[in-house]
Amino acid sequence: MQTFKVFTLLISILFSFNSFASDSPFKTVQEFFAATSAVDHSRLRSLATEDFQLLEVGDIWDIDKLVSVIQPSDEKRLNYFNLITTKVNGDIAWVSYWNQAKFVKGDESFKMAWLESAVLVKENSKWRIQMLHSTRIKKDKFPKNIVMTEFTE
Q: What is the sign of the dihedral through the CA atoms of 64, 68, 69 and 72?
């Protein structure tokens, strides 16, 4: 009986950690880029608010513009991140992070990197991106001491 109680406690703790991890505003950002890579327009929309705004290299995009640009291709995109900061205040959060994408097509590949920030709001107990600001980083300006971690689902 004691073994059963310990097992039940361990399972409860594991589910608690999983619940906390999936409730992370940054996890929503990572899932947003995974949806971009998968060209999953409906999932992309579900991770953004209706008034979503993307500040992209001097342009202002809404979710419709972003979806129109993300189209199927024979290139595969792998997403890598390094979280800088997460701040949560009630149902509002902001995150800042390094974002790096590796694009692979056949035997060829190249990388692009950005310094980004996002504002998220909690709607129906789920974090959704309201604003994303993306600054492209030139290859020679990307910090060498940052460890990037691939996000896979």
A: positive
